[in-house]
Amino acid sequence: QVQLVESGGGLVQAGGSLRLSCAASGRTFSGYAMGWFRQAQGKEREFVTAISWSGSPTYVSGSVKGRFTISRDNAKNTVHLQMNSLKPEDTAVYYCAAADRPGSYFRGQDYDSWGQGTQVTVSS
């Protein structure tokens, strides 16, 4: 029952950077985990990265390891995704999600609240 509002998406050239943010409202920003997922045109939604309530540990997909960093600011009820060295294959709609209870960090079914999604397009 948390509303998540994303910002920061857009169009960027390959090798560039974007910073996505997700602000929570509706109730206190707490819970088990926050995650980012993405869905490219014609493909299934896939896990990108996740972070625990305390900020550690974090989990990241091998396809973005070393390029993307997730962070969480509980005082500001905000989670961020710093995206560096972007590639055309990173083009997708990116969704932030919140899990209020224990589950799998990697499965979308285990998250309770979702943002509206924001388009990230990386040109070659």
Gyration radius from CA atoms, angstroms? 13 Å
Structural class: mainly beta
Strand content: over 45%
Mean pLDDT score? 92
Query: How many E-type strands?
Result: 11
Major sheet attributes: 7 strands, mixed
Ranges with pLDDT <50 over ≥5 residues? none
Number of helices: 0
Secondary-structure element series: EEEEEEEEEEE
Q: What spatial form do the alpha-carbon principal axes imply?
A: globular
Q: What distance separates the N and C termini?
A: 39 Å
Helix percentage range: under 10%
List the helices and strands and how they pair.
Blueprint: E1 3-7, E2 10-13, E3 18-25, E4 33-39, E5 46-52, E6 58-60, E7 68-73, E8 78-83, E9 92-99, E10 113-114, E11 118-123
Parallel strand pairs: 2-11
Antiparallel strand pairs: 1-3, 3-8, 4-5, 4-9, 5-6, 7-8, 9-10, 9-11
Question: If you had to describe this structure to a student in words, what would you say it looks like?
Answer:
The protein has no helices and eleven strands. It has strands spanning 3-7, 10-13, 18-25, 33-39, 46-52, 58-60, 68-73, 78-83, 92-99, 113-114, 118-123. Strands 2, 4, 5, 6, 9, 10 and 11 form a seven-stranded mixed β-sheet that branches. It has a four-stranded antiparallel β-sheet with strand order 1-3-8-7, with no helix packed on it. The mean pLDDT is 92.
